[in-house]
Specification:
Helices cover 42% and strands 25% of the residues. It has 300 residues and is α+β, with helices and mostly antiparallel strands. 53% of the residues are buried. The protein binds (R)-mevalonate (MEV). (R)-mevalonate binds next to helix 4 and helix 5.
Length: 300
């Protein structure tokens, strides 16, 4: 990295409750992880490198990542091709952990550090990039990537931080299956069109997110765990789980988790489990299935 490099960070995320329903105006609860993406921008010619993702591209090619970064830079009034970007990625890509939003926020911050643009511009630029990947994003991924902590998000009011009495430890398990958020979101939209009762599942997912806020406020882990379990069932009903995600969720519950569910768009990606006192057992069981898991402390 050259001396004039500027840097920015975006958090990786987990959605606790309300994924997919948030696209339809329902509330969701999300948390930023300590890990994410750090971007470095320096004067250059439009190269983008992220060794952890085996990503090495040139702005101007027709890949979605190049298009997204070009749009983001345009939104911040900068020619992307006048900069080089180096990304240190601590979250896997396309795994339901908000890698694309973390990347967009990190790059937007690294660019904003050169132009003096404020956080509102950063968020708008990240949203423009997210629209390339996800077509109709609710905005939750960009909000949590920029804000971190635990928060409630809906399309009308945006992000509202939820203060916690103490942080919550979550187990995150990776299925190893990659997927495209936009495919999952359009699959749910098609289902809702063909089978109108599916909309009731969406509304109930919103109710579970509302109940989850009460559980967080009162520190009721058991209620939150039940919420995770019910949400996983409804998300399966919407067709976004997979046999691998179901197996990870079952294994976590067998290991003593109070609740477990897929997190993010589904179709592969990751699950989360709430397992106070049983977290090591959950990780061990996932390992015995050949799946990688880790702990994340949210709301710190
Ligand atoms: C993806 O992290 C969350 C979804 O609800 C899509 C979105 O909100 O844009 C599946």
């Amino acid at each position: 990295m050259t001396e004039n490099a500027t840097a920015g960070f975006g958090h990786g995320k987990v959605i606790l409750l309300g994924e997919h329903a948030v696209v339809y105006g329902q509330p969701a609860i999300a948390a930023g992880m300590q890990v994410g993406v750090r971007a470095h921008a320096s004067a250059g010619a439009g190269s983008v490198r992220a060794p952890a993702w085996q990503l090495d591209l040139q702005l101007g090619d027709d890949s979605p990542v190049a298009t997204a970064i070009d749009r983001l830079c345009q939104r911040l009034g900068v020619a992307g091709r006048s900069l080089d970007f180096w990304l240190e990625a601590e979250v896997p890509s396309r795994a339901g952990l908000g890698s694309s939003a973390a990347m967009a926020v990190a790059i937007a911050r690294a660019v904003a550090a050169r132009t003096g643009a404020g956080e509102d511009d950063v968020l708008a630029a990240a949203a423009a990039a997210e629209a390339v990947f996800h077509e109709t994003p609710s905005g939750i991924d960009a909000a949590v990537a920029s804000r971190g902590g635990v928060g409630r998000f809906d399309r009308d009011t945006g992000w509202q931080a939820i203060p916690l009495n103490r942080p919550i430890e979550l187990c995150v398990g990776l299925s190893g299956q990659t997927r495209q958020t936009s495919d999952l979101v359009s699959g749910v939209a098609r289902l809702c069109q063909r089978v109108p009762v599916a909309r009731r599942l969406i509304d109930t997912l919103g109710d579970l997110a509302r109940a989850g806020m009460d559980a967080l406020a009162s520190g009721d882990s058991e209620a939150l765990g039940h919420g995770f379990n019910m949400a996983h069932g409804l998300l399966s009903g919407l067709g976004v789980s997979t046999p691998e995600l179901d197996a990870l969720v079952r294994a976590a519950r067998t290991a003593g988790a109070l609740g477990a569910k897929l997190t993010g768009a589904g179709g592969g990606g990751a699950v989360i489990a709430l397992a106070p006192d049983r977290a090591e057992e959950v990780l061990k069981r996932w390992r015995s299935m050949g799946c990688y898991g880790f702990l994340t402390l949210v709301g710190k």
